[in-house]
Amino acid sequence: MISLPETNRFTRQGILNLKQVFTNYGVVLKNRTFLRYTLATGMGFSAIIAYATINPYLLQTQLSLSPQQYGFWAAMGGSGLLVGMLVNSRMADYVTINFMLKLGLCMLTAMGIVLAICGSLQIISVAWIIVPTFFMSLGIAFIFPNASIGALAPFPKIAGAAGALYGCAQIMVSSGVSLIVMRMSETSQLPMGILMTALGGIGLLGYWLLTIGE
Q1: From the first residue on, what is the mean pLDDT of each consecutive set of 10 residues in the chain (214 residues)?
Q2: I want to staple 200 with a disulfide (CB 3.0 to 4.6 A). Which of 35, 56, 58, 108 is the partner?
Q3: Per the domain annotation, does 163 fall within a domain?
Q4: Domain total for the chain?
Q5: CA-CA-CA-CA torsion sign (162, 168, 171, 177)
Q6: Which domain holds residue 127?
C-alpha cells in the first residue's frame, strides 16, 4: 500500500480551529518582512496584468499586426520571464534574495520610464514595445521567487496561513490595478509607461519604508 506521510514538522492539534486560523493571519499581517516582500510581488504581478492587457491593443490596433504576428512578438516579450528565472537560479549562490528583488524592481521602474519617454515622443514600433517588455519581464522574474522566499521564511510553523495571504494579496492588488488599466488611454506606450514606473517605484519605496527600524 502506498502512503503519503505528513511532512509538516510543526503539526499540532487545533490548527484548523477558526479562532486559531485568524490569530495566525493576524501574526502574518503584522510582520513587516512579510508586508514588504508581498508588496513587491503584488507590484510585479500587477505589471504582468497591465502589459498583458495593453500590449495587444498597441500591437494589433495601433501597429496592425496580425494575430499570428502578435502571438510571436508577445511570446518574445514574455520570454523574459523564462530567461529571468534561469538567470535567477544561477545567481542564487552569489547574491542575496534582497539584491535580486531590488534589481527586479529597478528594472521594472527603468523600463516604465523608457516606455513613457517613447510614448511622449510618439515613438511607437514593435521594437520599442517588445524590448522594454522583455526586460520588464526579466525584472519581474527576479521579483517573484525572491519575494516568495522572503515573505514565507519567517513563518515555518504557519506556512499555510502565510502562503494563503501571500497569494490572496497578489490577486487583490492586481485586481485594483486592473480597474485602473480599464480607464487608461491606449494610443501609445505613455500610459503603460507611467503605470509601470509607478508600480516599480511603489515597490521600491514600500520595501525601503518597511525595512526602516529592523
Answers
A1: 64 66 90 95 94 91 92 93 95 94 97 95 93 96 96 90 92 89 82 94 94 77
A2: 108
A3: yes
A4: 1
A5: negative
A6: 33-209
